[in-house]
Design brief:
single chain; 212 residues; mainly alpha
Length: 212
């Protein structure tokens, strides 16, 4: 029962702080995360908006994840769908009221904080194993299928998203922050899962699994 509540709390905290990290990332104005770049590019291609196309793409991915491995669909999936956008908007408003990211130094520090928070938050709800976003599930399923370790699967999916987004003219969404998250998020998330989040859940020994 104690472990169950730990998993629920880790899922909620991880999801909320993922939203916070998106707000911080937007404040840095040095590029969005790879999936946002992908969705923006697809929206450009069909002459739609991000807000309209995002749930469509998420819905398609959810169906695919459900058909391949519905284990990854749960409370975390629902929270990701409805909470992250709201938290990101609120976080950005608060940050805008606190300071201006008007120098490269401030924007760089803001970016570093955003990436740290994003990777740690993602590791919390992935380790909790109560459902993840449909996009996160893609690389986790690839790792489960022994295609490669999670960090390499995540790099692959992120890089593909960045390339597609860039080709489809989501140029404003692609920056140094996008490149760093594309190549660095997988390894950093895997590090946090193994050395922090799994130990919070299972104790000092942690737990191996899921290609992590």
């Amino acid at each position: 029962m104690e472990k169950k509540w730990k998993r629920i709390i880790m899922t909620i905290i991880g999801t909320v702080f993922t939203g916070v990290s998106v707000g911080i990332l937007r404040k840095a104005q040095l590029g969005t995360d790879p999936f946002t770049a992908f969705v923006t590019g697809c929206a450009n291609a069909v002459h739609s908006s991000y807000g309209v196309l995002y749930p469509v793409i998420i819905g398609i991915l959810l169906i695919l994840v459900f058909l391949i491995d519905k284990h990854y669909i749960g409370i975390g999936t629902i929270l990701n769908l409805f909470i992250i956008g709201i938290v990101a908007d609120v976080s950005l408003k608060i940050l805008n009221a606190i300071y201006e990211a008007d120098t490269w130094l401030i924007r760089g520090v803001t970016l570093a904080v955003a990436i740290f928070v994003l990777c740690f938050a993602s590791s919390l709800y992935i380790a909790a194993d109560l459902g993840v976003s449909s996009y996160d599930a893609v690389s986790l399923i690839m790792a489960d299928k022994k295609i490669a370790q999670y960090r390499f699967c995540r790099i692959f999916t992120d890089v593909i998203c960045v390339i597609i987004g860039y080709v489809l003219h989501a140029v404003d969404c692609v920056g140094i922050g996008t490149v760093i998250t594309a190549f660095g998020m997988g390894p950093i998330v895997q590090f946090f899962i193994k050395h922090v989040s799994q130990k919070l859940l299972y104790g000092k020994e942690g737990k191996e699994g899921n290609g992590l």
